[in-house]
Structures
1.
Amino acid sequence: MLPEGFRPEASPGRTLPVNSLFMTEAISKHPAVERVRAALALHGLSPEITILSDSARSAKEAAAGLAIEVGQVCSSLIFTLGDSTEPLLILTSGRHRVDTDLVARNLGVTHLGRADADIVRTATGFAIGGVSPVAHPAPLRTIIDEALSAYDVVWAAAGHPHAVYPTTFKELLHITGAQPMVVGD
């Protein structure tokens, strides 16, 4: 006889199939995704947010899920300026890594630090892997990778590791107030 309250679906090591339609709807209505949708609407934009079945935590994963070039993925990375905890958002093409020494020199600071998960969450309101270029609790100093201008369409995170939306370099410049810069090679 099974113990009272036993639920096989809650047993360790047991995974149940997920209804992909349910998952898509749940992610689409996630509060962070709704925040991104609302922030874009404030700028007159209403792109269709795409829900990927696999995670888009990295540019490579997002590109594979969308069947696009990795360079078309706009990664939103948070760094800190010098020895401070002041956040800096860098919107970079997935085709290369950010050259932190180059960006630091261009900004006139000694170095950039990689922000930890707490700084990322506090600065952006999002967890690592779902950081969107928009919908942050307060405006962030933002740099945009000039390499993104090579693409007609780029894809950015929409507040959840499975949610992305199409945009353009010009739209990102407009809605974020970002400073264009070469950030890698």
2.
Amino acid sequence: MDTDPGCWLPDGWQQREIVELVSIESRFRFRRISDTIYEIRPPDDETSKDIPHLSRLLPSNRAWLWSWNPFGAPLRRWSEHHDLS
């Protein structure tokens, strides 16, 4: 799975998936493949000890991220146009 926050939009249809992904971190093991790519492994795989820190994908932990706008409008901080409450 790719843990790059830019691949997981914090609103829309991916929001529910992000919460589910964060919840699996305690139930599985992970093996780091590249900077942001982790292989999900069975919980009994003692050779996979990498920690992907999936909680950083949660919208509440991403207020510092800049919004990506494919239409060329100026970028704004994500927190400037999303309600964090």
3.
Amino acid sequence: MKVIITIFTIIVFAVSSLQLCAQDDDLFKKCEDSLQSLALVLGTDSVEENRTNAVKDLIPYLVQTLKHKGSFSYPFDSVNGMSFVYSPDSTFRLVTFQLRRDDGSNRYFGAIQMNSDELKLFPLYDVSDTLPFHCNKILSPEKWYGSIYYNILAHEVDGDKIYTLFGFDANDYWSNKKFIEIMRFEDGKPVFGSDPLIVVTDSLGNSKEYNRFFIEYKHNSNVGMNYYPEDDMIVYDHLKPFKKKYDGLYFAYIPDGSYEGFKWENEQWNWVKKVFHFSIGHRDDPPMPTPVLDQEKQKLYDPRSSRSDD
């Protein structure tokens, strides 16, 4: 009799849990639809004031959505215009999106959501308008180089977990940037550009260490930078100016068909000058939407502008 009661109790609990999960999914689907509506205005409206107002509505709604228990495991992957990227160990995820301004500049917004029973968010404040990009600057959530994050890697260094973040910045009318950046948690708080673990060695054997590494290129060029498991390395396009007279002017840089990379060895990313076995067929498709707005003047990040299998 006790066995029957126990089995019955388990069945009732399982059915109740499934009902709760279904209710949670219904709730998050409604939240996802609302976020999509706001993101659509943010990404497609031709009036800057309307896009700005969409951001003002989106931020508090996003926070309220993430306050619901179970939100961390809901992917929100149908929200075009926002990036939700999990760390490989599922300890946190990065949520980022952008506001394009009429002058060609961009303002980025984001948060780190921790995997915890109660909402634990670190809002990210974009200071790239006032703080020039620096490869060795150590930053915090309150001082953050704004970007859309599209991938995260995890490694251990001296027993501590460090993360490599992949970001995209629709810099201005003339150029885009992609970069990798080292991040770790110190006393439970994220630190951006925390460690100089990106090492570039020149032909003379001289090495330079960086906390972040970026490439800048012509705004409408198809340029990739991502980690490829089959090659076990970060691979990115080698760039050069499309005319020799533009040497040093990165808004004129385009891929030349060859590739460089970074290999994780000895607890650091070591530069690889040429990646001979890498083919153009590899993909670099960060989880971002189809852009709307004018292709030349009102630029949003379009993953399909990166290398594809086509």
